[in-house]
Amino acid sequence: MDDAARALKVHERLLDFYGAPDWPTPQGAIEELVSTILSQNTNDINRDKAFAALTERYASWEAVRDADADEVVDTVRVAGLANQKGPRIQAVLRDISEERGELSLDFLRDLEPAAAKEWLQSFKGVGPKTAAIVLQYGLGVPAFAVDTHIHRITGRIGLRPDKLSADKTHDLLEELLPPETWYAAHLNIIRLGREICQARKPRCPECPLTDLCDYYAEEYQGE
After folding, report:
1. Which of 60, 127, 131, 208 could be disulfide-bonded to 120 (CB atoms 3.0-4.6 Å)?
2. 132 HSE (CA, 13 A, CB side)
3. pLDDT tens across the length of the chain (223 residues)
């Protein structure tokens, strides 16, 4: 079985195991951009607290963009690394406004996905993961976001080379899987990583992917 066939089998097996994930109510592209910047090196709870603090304190993203820098840092402090995240958020909001004449990313729907991704990644602090989340969740443009769970699991299964970075794994998975699978595959692999294929102690006997997994073959069948 080649890698593309195995990747598709992984997706189909997880659909059978977990079902099709619900599509959340879109927040909007700017909201996804800010939320993803806040999420870096923190957990979902603190990210959400910081995002809520911003939206409660400021009436619009233009207000966040133009606010006192120290005030924004203080507002997002709960997310950690506030001295980096606050200025980064304001800088990217200013850059978008200067380039587009407005604080909107809706025009990206009219670009080819690769061009939209490249445009987003031209801003400091916006990497492949952030760009993919903005496109997929904020604009409904197909993209495959790779987080720590997906990077770990695809390595264990053997869908990517051991030393391939998370940034480059985005492109690999987009080559292996058809675009219509990316949303469900992304969420179901993350769920598998949280519930079963955990970083320190993977619960392999509970996993629906054992016959597709290099790690399982080495750790269990090699005994």
Report:
1. 131
2. 20
3. 799 999 999 999 999 999 999 876 668 999 999 999 999 888 889 999 999 999 999 999 999 999 999 999 999 999 999 999 999 999 999 999 999 999 999 999 999 999 999 999 999 889 999 999 999 999 989 899 999 999 999 999 999 999 999 999 999 999 999 999 999 999 999 999 999 999 999 999 999 999 999 999 998 865 5
Other CB atoms closer than 10 Å to residue 202's CB: what's the count?
20
Which tokens is 19 given?
Answer: 């079902």
Among candidates 132, 134, 152, 151, which has minimal Cα distance to 143?
A: 132
Name the token pair of 52.
Answer: 């809520």
Residues 6+ apart with CB under 8 A from 40: 81, 85
